[in-house]
Amino acid sequence: MVSYSVCSSSQIFMSMFITGASQTMIPIIGVCLGEKDYDGVRYAFRRAARVLAVSSVVIMLFICIEPEPIIKFFGITSPTDIANTVPAMRINALSFPGLSFSFLLLYYYMATQKRAISTAISIINGIVILIPSALILGKFFGIMGVWYSLVVAQVGTLVVVYFISHKETDILNISTDEIKSIYVTNGLNGDMVDVPSSDFCDFANALNEVKLKKGRKVDSTGWDYGINLSDGKNEYDLSFVSQRFIVIGAKKYETKEQSGVKLYNLCEHYFKDKK
């Protein structure tokens, strides 16, 4: 009971940083989404992630290196209670980085209107992984196994969220300042336009709005517009078969909810203007 009380208090302390970073990030992301500023969305998320990465690692290391002063801070002086609480605190602290990013992703997906993923994170973290792992590890390792289940739950949640979020993904996760060159090609006559850097932001935002459904092998060779984009290290090629279908590599993807219309119209309008 003493171990649980101290570990819960340390988690509450960690949650102050999680809540602070997340609640600062949410309104910024809301404003950026309203203005179609996807670079701003990524910037806000990355800043919050950096804050939590540093704070969670620092707190984790402090607890792992010097757990006894923290335990005594809560008024626990019994040598037996201290001896039982020290390993529990150290194991619990190992879950802080995973806990921080799990909740940061939960708030991020809430802010970006992906409530299904945020709900999945909450359920997976608190029920689907935590309870079975606590029962299984507790059976083999006793009370220490229960504490280890906290770490397993956070790592497992992050792994599951990774696969969920990549099942239906953007074309590219790229910001304006990463783009070095963009070329747009007319599929009907082969004419090519070199997009000036002043228009990179429009293309980046349009690209990042596109959501793809499951791809399948290309069943046609004709296309309307092609886009070649370079970030200085890699080149990315994609082509529009129509406003609804995009070919990337050897697969054709259907766009979700007409999310490719803006990019298609940008290519069409831009190409006509530059003729």
Explain the layout of strands and helices.
Blueprint: H1 2-34, H2 38-65, H3 67-73, H4 79-94, H5 96-111, H6 115-128, H7 130-141, H8 143-167, E1 181-186, E2 192-194, H9 200-209, E3 216-217, E4 225-230, E5 235-240, E6 245-248, E7 251-254, H10 261-274
How many strand elements? Answer: 7
The spatial strand order of the largest sheet comes to 2-1-4-5-6-7-3
First-last Cα distance: 75 Å
Number of domains: 2
Radius of gyration based on Cα positions = 24 Å
- Helix vs. strand class: alpha+beta
The parts where pLDDT drops under 50 for at least 5 residues are none
Mean pLDDT: 84
What is the number of helical segments per DSSP (H or I, 4+ residues)? Answer: 10
Largest sheet: 7 strands, antiparallel
Order of helices and strands: HHHHHHHHEEHEEEEEH
Overall morphology: elongated
Estimate what percentage of residues fall within beta strands. 5-15%
The level of helicity is 55-70%
Please give a handful of descriptors for the protein shown.
alpha+beta; Dna Ligase, domain 1; 7-stranded antiparallel sheet; 275 residues; 64% helix
Summary of the model, kept short:
By secondary structure, the chain is α+β, with helices and mostly antiparallel strands. The protein contains 10 helices and 7 strands.
